[in-house]
Give the backbone structure.
Amino acid sequence: MNTATRSELTIDGRRLSYLDFGGTGRPLVALHGHLSEGATFAELARALDPEWRLIAPDQRGQGESDRAADYSREGYLSDIEALLDHLELERVVLLGHSLGAINAYQFAARHPERVSALVNAEGPAAFGLDGPNPLGFLLELPHEAPTREALVAGLGPAAPYFADRLRENADGSWRLPFHPRDMYDSEHHVHGDHWADWTATTCPALLVHGTKGVIPAGQAHAMAERRPHTTATELDTDHFIHTAAPDAFAATVGGFLAGV
């Protein structure tokens, strides 16, 4: 497989960075979740090569992509449309994890002609309607520090989750690959009842959820029952399904894509 190439496009003066794993296979656009980035799909790209050309953006405000003015639902969806237009891709398979999965099926609901199939990894149809924001802990974390060591120290118990993805600024200081306030706000905006969007399309869909994930078993069953042409698969892992069980996830996704 070709080494991933990092490229970017500009949207209203803001950089949106993406990884293109190359090849001549059919296009598959993979959307990561909160506190992540496109590189998290490198192992999946290797597993699906050469049948699929995986393209993974760093969604707004994460990884190498610039911060945005807002983290609304429509903002994320407009980024997907801009990326597809930039790549001159009329129709793709959309795969997403968590935030990215909700972005994927909401984009499909608004642009069904551009999505041939969906892979939803741990993206609920409804959640967070009454509970607190689970990313509230981020507001206690520093965004940057003069040195890498100081930033790691400031992150405290959260450091192991982010230490290998810290970025160095041009002036030698270091920062997280996201701003804590941005991700808190983004999580707030993604909460809600999205059943209408999930059931709006009829293209083939795969729902992959973990036994210790965020989608209750009853909701996962209902998501498969209420949306035509949807297959649900449960894997014995947690919410971070594609990194916690990469082989099982790749095999499940590959099997589904073989029939698309």
User: Anything to note?
Assistant: The chain has one domain: 5-129+191-258. The radius of gyration is 18 Å.
